[in-house]
Design brief:
By secondary structure, the protein is mostly helical. The protein is 64% helix and 12% strand.
Length: 190
């Protein structure tokens, strides 16, 4: 009897904490959207450079998704203990909607996973699109992040394009700590 009362009290406490965590989500979602554009008036007012705003955005995003994870796991654990998981998980009501909440949970976890730092990059360029590709390579090389492998796929029609590209590409790869693998495709003059 006492064990059952303690367990029910614990389940009620877990649901209260889960509801409180859910209440913290709304302000965090608002904070998450502040640095959304480069020309944001808010960023200019705060004198916050765009790269710093992105770092802030990522930090708040991780914090928000951690709240989502804890909120859902706590509710799911309490519902599982009470034996009402299926009924609550697929319920549709005016205050809370378990079905759409579960879908939002799964999608937010997928988004969280996809927001993790990539292990490398693949850059595909054709002809003159090597110019923006070189800018991306320079940005990757100049970042303070640890060295990551980069694969550059470039197709070109004229030999002089290769002669123009090789010196800056080699300098970029060597001087700026870039682990670069290239695959060049010469298609010849058409």
């Amino acid at each position: 009897m006492l064990v059952k009362m303690v367990a029910e009290s614990l389940a009620m406490l877990v649901k209260m904490v889960a509801e409180s965590l859910g209440g913290l989500l709304a302000p965090n979602l608002v904070l998450l959207l502040y640095p959304i554009t480069r020309g944001s008036v808010m960023l200019q007012a705060l004198r916050l450079p765009y790269p710093e705003a992105i770092r802030y955005h990522r930090w708040v995003g991780h914090h928000t998704l951690l709240l989502v994870l804890l909120h859902c796991i706590m509710y799911y654990a309490a519902w599982g203990y009470e034996g009402i998981f299926v009924a609550k998980a697929f319920a549709q009501g005016s205050k809370a909607n378990g079905l759409f909440g579960g879908m939002a949970f799964l999608l937010s976890m997928a988004m969280w996973r996809s927001s993790q730092e990539p292990s490398g990059a693949i850059i595909i360029a054709g002809g003159v699109s090597i110019t923006p590709a070189m800018a991306v390579l320079q940005e990757l090389a100049a970042s303070s992040a640890p060295q990551k492998p980069v694969l550059l796929l470039w197709s070109f029609r004229q030999r002089h394009e290769l002669e123009l590209l090789c010196p800056p590409l080699l300098a970029l790869a060597g001087a700026l700590r870039l682990s670069l693998t290239t695959r060049l495709f010469y298609t010849g003059e058409l």
